[in-house]
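Hi R.,

Here's the chain you asked about this morning:
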Amino acid sequence: MPGSICDVLPAAAALLGAPGAVDRLGLVKSVGAKDRVAVMLIDGMGWHLLPRLAGSAPLLASVLAGGAGRLSELACTFPSTTPSSLVSLGTGARPGEHGVLGFTLNVPGTDRVLSHIVWRDDPPPAEWQPLPTWFERLERAGIAARAVLPAPFLGSGLTDAAYRGARFRPAHPADDYARQLTDELNAAPGLVYGYAADLDTAAHVFGIDSVQWHEAAARVDALLTRLVEGLCPGAALLVTADHGGLNVPPEARVDIDTDPRLASGVRVVAGEPRVRYLHTEIGAAADVRATWSEALAGSARVYTREEAVATGMFGPVDPRHLARIGDVVVVCTGDAAVLATGHEPPESARLIGFHGGATEAETAIPLIVF
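And the predicted structure, written out as tokens:
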């Protein structure tokens, strides 16, 4: 079984000598103790996408050929979506434990849908995601933990949930991001974390294998090349991702808001196009499950909440987080997607690349150690 995104920061902490850090990835044995570790997360750089990226990314091509770095396969958590994965990275826990169980979630007891990428302080981050992060653990152990993040991320609920305890350094569009990360790593021992969204954005908007996606791949590769070249003695760079992805063709999309059968009995729609959480009217869950199972036969698995939890897909689910999962859970298979044009911004329906589901194309991620 491959390791998990949950294992990355504990392994980095073990490299730094943090007490209690368990290195399930075997990095201490293969790399040796370090006094500085950079962790770079490339949003959307799935394991199965690496060969397709290689033509635009010389460093990644060299990694695939065995000429640079050490490449291994990990898995992200489910759903394979950025908010869930970032919090799993930060806490070392699965979504059922930390509570960030999807891109959007119903706030229990209300009809409100919380979008984690625009979340600020309601609900309070420490209540919505109560687990400690590895940034906090490192700081408590006397090991500096820093995160160089786009300035708009600072102060957000998701940043707090995933990176709570880090010393934040803002990055602005005009800044030299590779230089910022390298300078931060060289300035003092400890952990430095970085994040790049360019590849994922291009996949969503233009599609995987589009010209724009390959241009983004070249920029990512240039960033990683400079980070590798800037590594000082005693430092290691760990490069990973939060999910992979796939293109969804128009004919594989259904829209809950244009199909009365699918809308019937549904009170709140959350999740995202590859994983839908349907919160139903009182007494309607069984009928909704039956209707969706018939309508999406062959393109999705449809569960009750209890069935979905019992599969273990979320990991152990804290009872405090249970109601965030829909009464009915729809997990797309193949290249299907469930749109919700009446509930979500119109640009969501215009996206080409998607992720969130449980296919290997979405959940397999790399770990590259330099």
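The first helix runs from residue 8 to 15.

Let me know if you need anything else.
M.
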